[in-house]
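Minutes, project check-in
Item: structure for the 243-residue chain
Input as provided by the requester:
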Amino acid sequence: MNRTERLYALVDELRAAAPRPRTVGWLADRFGVSRRTVQRDLQALMEARVPVRAEAGRHGGWFIDRDTALPPINLTAAEALAVAAALAGAEQTTPFSAAGPAAMRKLAAALGESAAEEVRALTERIHVLPARTASGVLPVVEQAVARRRVVWIRYADSAGRESEREVEPGGLLTASGAWYLIGWCRSRRAGRGFRLDRILAAELRDEPCPARTVSSLDHSLAERVRQADTLRSLSWESPPRRP
């Protein structure tokens, strides 16, 4: 990328990480440039009155004040198409997708005319089959995972046999186009995965539950799963290393 693109990308990276700081070394590795180049870029941003700041100390680095740097949405047409397609595929079947339509409206309002036209044209060619997940199940599962609360479910296995379970949620897993609630099944006294489209009913309990990691629920599964690439900028991960 050229310098202008890198300056925009630097701001986006610091904003996504905020309030956590990023070190100059981390940013240099992230963008494949020298530390001196990153220092010059950060100085240029400060001179342009972008609210980037440096914090000294062992855990210090560069950060941005998100409250004073609300970003415009500067997506390319390709990026906007990726978001539109992902949101369309997520409707009614994917956890936390209820806010998707509102997000798409905000995105469409912020796009440039040419990008917006491409997105509008694509929407005419994307079709969604009705959801198979039982009504009311997704909001309960979302709350159970987000609030770490025990959830009661009525579940049908692959043969159609129904059972009732109390589950201590550990998280959500997607594989081969299906979503699963993974957690500690009190009935089986073991880690289990429950396909969301096979959960027939769900009720949130008031009882809190301990934090469950994937490795504590299923060690072999933990060795195979990874975090989605699209979520990595929101995590504490290290930047990709240059070859």
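Outcome recorded: The two ends are 17 Å apart (CA to CA).
No further action items on this chain.
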